[in-house]
């Protein structure tokens, strides 16, 4: 009966039981059904129809939707060479090892000790001066202790460590998502800046040709000098927009190099243009509540809340009696 009572008590744990918040029970985002595809654009590139896939999730390797082999290789290099991602993985391993150590608190603790000594005892104090006795003494002991986790303090501590490991796992996912997103966005930004620079240079060339025509007309007396001056100002304004764009392009390329774990002087080893990227043909569409539930930062905050909830049970159990079963066995002998 005592064993049954202890077993029943061991199945209980003080403190609140953590429960996840449930998302809203909704099947659609708007009352009206969403269109199944986008409208096509009458452009040379990028005007294809895109299809919406309701209820689909975005794949983990979402950048592959752009169908660009250089982009896939660059993201893979960034994942392999990122020190931030390596640090997050190391922190996750540390949290898991702490969990394994915490689970050992439920097991019995066994301690053994063996010692031996040799002593020389003078017999003068016993009335026999000038004599002494030599003897050897050996001692062996074995102690065992088992905590009765009646109020669940140890189990709540393990629950907290498990939640902390879960928190670190979502932190790794957040670092992974942040790294890949920065790489892809920077690559698209580089392609955009290159297109803007090319377009600006074409505008400068056109404005320069226009200025040459106006100067010729002015020399022939066909137009006043004010028209030439106005065109020179327009050309100067167009040329002034080039340096900021070139500086932004250099910054984007340096950022790509850093994201893949290299120095800016080494470069990322690849350059992007819009012709190398293709819009995804299929676009997954899901509810905002599902997207929020899948965000690693939200799940990490939920795991942190779970750990804090378990710590309440640990603190409550520490205010209650702690019962340990202990046993000891040992012997002391003098060898012959």
Content-based structural category: alpha+beta
Counting DSSP H or I runs of 4 or more residues, the number of helices is 8
**Largest beta sheet: strand ordering:** 2-3-5
Strand proportion, as a percent range, falls in 5-15%
- Could you tell me the mean pLDDT? 84
Order of helices and strands: HEHHEEHHHEHHE
Largest sheet data: 3 strands, antiparallel
Gyration radius over CA: 37 Å
Secondary structure elements and their pairing?
Elements lengths: L1 H9 L40 E4 L14 H13 L1 H21 L5 E14 L9 E17 L4 H67 L5 H16 L1 H18 L22 E4 L2 H7 L1 H23 L4 E11 L3
Helix pairs in contact: 2-4, 3-4, 4-5, 4-6, 4-8
Please summarize what this structure is:
The protein has 336 residues and is α+β, with helices and mostly antiparallel strands.
Give an account of the 3D structure.
This protein has helices at 2-10, 69-81, 83-103, 153-219, 225-240, 242-259, 288-294, 296-318, and strands spanning 51-54, 109-122, 132-148, 282-285, 323-333. The protein has 336 residues and is of the alpha+beta class. Helix 4 (153-219) runs antiparallel to helix 5 (225-240), helix 4 (153-219) packs antiparallel against helix 6 and helix 4 (153-219) packs antiparallel against helix 8 (296-318).
């Amino acid at each position: 009966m005592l064993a049954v009572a202890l077993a029943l008590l061991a199945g209980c744990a003080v403190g609140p039981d953590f429960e996840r918040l449930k998302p809203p029970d909704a099947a659609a985002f708007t009352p009206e059904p969403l269109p199944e595809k986008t409208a096509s654009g009458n452009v040379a590139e990028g005007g294809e129809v895109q299809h919406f896939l309701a209820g689909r999730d975005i794949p983990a390797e979402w950048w592959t939707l752009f169908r660009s082999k250089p982009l896939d290789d660059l993201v893979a290099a960034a994942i392999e060479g990122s020190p931030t991602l390596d640090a997050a993985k190391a922190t996750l391993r540390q949290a898991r090892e702490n969990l394994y150590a915490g689970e050992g608190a439920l097991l019995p603790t066994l301690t053994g000790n063996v010692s031996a000594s040799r002593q020389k005892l003078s017999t003068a104090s016993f009335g026999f001066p000038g004599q002494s006795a030599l003897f050897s003494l050996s001692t062996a002991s074995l102690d065992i202790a088992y905590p009765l986790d009646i109020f669940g303090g140890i189990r709540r501590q393990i629950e907290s460590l498990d939640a902390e490991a879960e928190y670190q796992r979502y932190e790794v996912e957040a670092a992974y998502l942040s790294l890949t997103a920065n790489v892809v966005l920077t690559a698209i930004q580089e392609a955009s800046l290159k297109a803007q620079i090319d377009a600006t240079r074409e505008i400068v060339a056109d404005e320069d040709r226009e200025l040459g025509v106006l100067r010729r007309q002015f020399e022939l007396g066909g137009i006043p000098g004010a028209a030439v001056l106005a065109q020179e100002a327009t050309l100067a304004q167009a040329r002034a927009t080039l340096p900021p764009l070139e500086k932004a392009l250099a910054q984007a390329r340096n950022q790509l190099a850093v994201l893949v774990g290299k120095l800016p002087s080494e470069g990322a080893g690849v350059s992007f243009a819009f012709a190398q990227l293709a819009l995804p043909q299929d676009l997954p569409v899901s509810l905002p509540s599902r997207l929020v539930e899948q965000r690693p930062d939200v799940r990490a905050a939920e795991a942190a809340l779970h750990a804090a909830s378990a710590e309440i049970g640990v603190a409550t159990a520490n205010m209650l009696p702690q019962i340990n079963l202990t046993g000891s066995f040992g012997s002391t002998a003098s060898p012959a």
